Amino acid sequence: MESNNNIELESLISEVKSLKERLNSLRPLNPTTIAKGFQELRMRMNYHTNALEGNSLDYGETRLLLMYGLTAKGKPLKDHLDIKGHNEAFLWLEDFARKKFLLIQGDIRELHKVLLREPYYVDAETPSGEPTRKLIEVGKYKTTPNNVKTSTGEIFYFADPMEVNARMTDLMDWYHDYETLPESEQDPIRFAAEFHYKFIIIHPFDDGNGRMARILMNLILMRASYPPAIIQKEERNQYLLALETADQNKDQPDLSAFIYEVAKGLKYSLELLVKSAEGLKTDEIEKENREMRLALIRQARETNTQDIKQKVKDLWERNLLPFYEELIIGLTLFIDEFVNVGYQGPHGVVNSVKDFNFLTNNWSTLYDNLDQYPVAQLIFSFSQALLPVTAETFSIRVFITLRHQRSGLQIEIERQGDGSASHLRDRKSEELKFNAFEMNQEICNQIISYIINSILKEFERSLEMNPSASTK
């Protein structure tokens, strides 16, 4: 059986090397092709390596987060932060691999900071089995044991905290010795897998050791001109079982099964890059890209509809309703002077300004369909008709427009009177346009003052032209 396993391993490694040669034969590659291929690789790496640790984001949600900054509804914040942290760590890795710097323990601790971002608490147990909370520190080696239960229920003991510094020094000395070997004597696939294993049995950090082991393993592979190996979520059980199999004999661990899993991950990555370089798209890639596009559209719609409606509701209750209340109070000064005083809201709804309950109780009409029809407009109309019929009369219409744009919700104020448009001006724009969420009492007062003063000026102008009306 062992002989057959070795034959399968050698056959797989031969396939991996052939794929690497095939990819090299396609060079020089178009820079855009390279960028797209490695972007796809990075997206899959971020998804699969976090999924191995139990992250709940699926592949489409991972891409949406990294490419568009969209969060997945109902998924834990920590899962989003873990994806972002690993993406930053992977970008750090790519840069470090290119620079050919000598890897030292300080780099590993710094990478751990990038990966985990900031300290946090996790549930834990005391030595006596009592539940407690444990602070996970970033960029520092562990100070308390972090042993785990295996699939059989037995405890696997990692390096004691007091041993970590010495064990990590031994590991890095071994790594540096390997790097001094002539390239012809190096075996990067086996060495990367063994480094991963040695790092895992030390478990130097409180958390993130699995992700760190895979990142450092991939550094070795990338410096040997291989792409990073992606251990797929679907291979999780085989991956963990291969690690447990190696653990059965600590003095002479059998790593063949684990090397096989790493080689499988490397084959997966190489096939992806070869297909990208050749301009081919497999059914799997087409399906995943289609699912990602559908997820993007679905999430964008859900986010757009729910986010807009909630924001406009909050906006109305916090900013606009108090504004309209004060505006209505100001407008009541002119109710007796105007025959036609009306309110026109979205969808042609018309009500008397005097019926203020309409605005108070039916505010939802302002935002119900704002995701589909991105403009809601309030129009207050004032038509003076109590002056002599032969005299010049006037009308004023005040447009208060709530407009949803990519830049946010905008408020636009415009007054039309005496047949010509007159715009409220500020220092930056010919008409008043501002982010509705920045609306404050000062802005409200300016708008109300502008509207009421505009009506007063028109009313006074009309009276000046019709002196007989002043005796009213």
- Give the termini distance in whole angstroms: 111 Å
- Note the total helix count: 13
Sequence of secondary-structure elements: HHHHHEEEEHHHHHHEEHEEEEEH
Helix content: 40-55%
Approximate shape:
elongated
Total beta strands: 11
Mean pLDDT: 75
Quote the CATH topology of the largest domain: Fic-like fold
CATH level-two architecture of the largest domain? Orthogonal Bundle
Low-confidence stretches: 385-392, 418-432
What CATH first level of the largest domain would be assigned? Answer: Mainly Alpha
- Biggest sheet statistics: 7 strands, antiparallel
In terms of DSSP E residues, the strand content is 5-15%
Key features of this structure:
472 residues; 2 domains; seven-stranded antiparallel sheet; 13% strand
General description of the model:
By secondary structure, this protein is α+β, with helices and mostly antiparallel strands. The protein is 53% helix and 13% strand. The chain folds into two domains: 2-280, Fido-like domain (Fic-like fold), CATH 1.10.3290.10; 301-471, no CATH class. The chain has helices at 2-25, 31-51, 59-68, 77-99, 105-116, 164-179, 188-202, 209-223, 236-247, 256-277, 283-331, 356-361, 441-465, and strands at 120-125, 131-136, 148-149, 155-156, 340-344, 350-352, 375-383, 395-405, 408-417, 420-423, 432-435. Strands 5, 6, 7, 8, 9, 10 and 11 form a seven-stranded antiparallel beta sheet that branches. A two-stranded antiparallel sheet has the order 1-2. The protein has a two-stranded antiparallel ribbon with strand order 3-4. A hairpin with a 2-residue loop joins strand 8 (395-405) and strand 9 (408-417). Helix 2 (31-51) packs across helix 3 and helix 11 (283-331) packs across helix 13 (441-465). The longest helix is centred in the middle third of the chain and has 49 residues, at 283-331. The chain is elongated, with a radius of gyration of 34 Å. Mean pLDDT is 75; it is low at 385-392 and 418-432.
